[in-house]
Amino acid sequence: MIVSLGLGALLAQSPLDIVLQDPALQGAVVGVVVMDPKGTVRYDRNGDVRMVPASNQKLLTGAFALHRLPANQRFETRFHADSRGVWIDAPGDPLMTRDDLREIRRRLGRYAGRRVYVRPSFDVKWPDSWEWDDLPYYYAPVVSSFTVDRGVYRVESDGKQLRLSPEGYGDAVRRVTGPRETYRYLDARREWVISTPSFPNAGPGQRLAIPDPLAAAASTLGRYAGRTRDPLPGAPILTWTGRTVADAVIECLPPSDNYLAEALFLAAARQDAATIDYPSARREMGRFLTEVVGVAAGDFRISDGSGLSRQNFVTPRAMAQLLHWAETQPFAAQWEAAQARPGSGTLRNQLSGIDFAGKTGTLSGVVSLSGYVRARSGERFRVVCIANHTVVPAAQVRAVWERVMRLVADDQVPRVGD
Question: What is the mean pLDDT of residues 274-290?
Answer without folding.
Answer: 96
